């Protein structure tokens, strides 16, 4: 799933290529991706793209004519944005194609929103204001605005496992499964540590790790073509997606805990005092 650094990279990519262009056509390939029906996506046609922004893991294209309309979308777990310098001339039709939406610009360029797999979660909204999307209106603090005092308040507000807190978009916006693993590894914290158990040193380590990991990832994503962002993200991971490999910090074997539809990775030496966390599918979690 694209997270804050990759989404910010896509924002910069689209800002450089789409702002100032006019929407020539919008074609729908998957009706299920549309979460709003009025205004219709076709009402974006003829409007100028005036801005591109990010809200957590949501992308927001502002189009202007007689008032603003926003094309707001969330790429979910298996979605992506495919850019064309010259969009295929074939008109997109609803069907079994992985293409959910196609946007054509007046210079012949444009992009597709695609989604792989059978579980379709990509979400596309056309709204007058992004806050009309509930998931955007309820977003928590952006990592760049997260002070150590605010982080301490969030940790103390609800006693929950820190991995879940970092992924909760209503608490902190933009962090998902991959970067929460990376942040906790950098902070030397167990993913199952309870938030109210953190002393001042743990809060400081977590705050510093959030800033450092995301800043590094955002810098790496900046300026990259959309097609390169996913591979760049994978290469930068130290523990996420690297179960069975050596931890680059201590050399211990990176371990995994699997859930119904996701998994997490961690280093026992760096994060859990050498303890192996039990797979939740098999037994009770060790903290």
Automatic annotation (TrEMBL):
| Single annotated GO MF | zinc ion binding
Residue stretches making up the FPG-type domain: 238-272
PROSITE patterns attached to this UniProt entry: FPG_CAT, ZF_FPG_2
- What processes does the entry annotate via GO biological process terms? base-excision repair
Please list the residue ranges annotated as the Formamidopyrimidine-DNA glycosylase catalytic domain. 2-122
Q: Which UniProt keywords apply?
A: DNA damage, DNA repair, DNA-binding, Glycosidase, Hydrolase, Lyase, Metal-binding, Multifunctional enzyme, Zinc, Zinc-finger
List, separated by semicolons, the cofactors it needs.
Answer: Zn(2+)
What is catalyzed by this enzyme? Answer: Hydrolysis of DNA containing ring-opened 7-methylguanine residues, releasing 2,6-diamino-4-hydroxy-5-(N-methyl)formamidopyrimidine
Give the similarity note. Answer: Belongs to the FPG family.
Matches recorded under PANTHER family:
FORMAMIDOPYRIMIDINE-DNA GLYCOSYLASE
The protein, known as: Fpg/Nei family DNA glycosylase
Species the sequence originates in: Georgenia subflava
Q: What is the lineage of its organism?
A: Bacteria, Bacillati, Actinomycetota, Actinomycetes, Micrococcales
